[in-house]
Amino acid sequence: MPDLDSLKHFGNDAFFTSEIILENNQVFMRPLAIDDLQSLVDISFSDRLWEYGHRVKSEEDVKGYIQTCLSWRAESAIIHS
Prior knowledge:
The chain is mainly α. Helices cover 47% and strands 5% of the residues. The protein has a two-stranded antiparallel sheet with strand order 1-2. A hairpin with a 4-residue loop joins strand 1 and strand 2. The chain is globular, with a radius of gyration of 15 Å. This is N-acetyltransferase.
């Protein structure tokens, strides 16, 4: 896992093709994955979560969101490689 100082030196190539994970005692951040579907479905129907954004109506909405994000990331990796 790269430290924060090493992230300053990442160009677009490395950013879009690396699986960067940031972690400390309060948070764990990693790239979105299709395996996150059920966890996101479990929280996606909260009115408070979607107060300022697009409301999720079904599990298929969440799956479509994840697939779109992964597709955009893959396209960016191709463009920047």
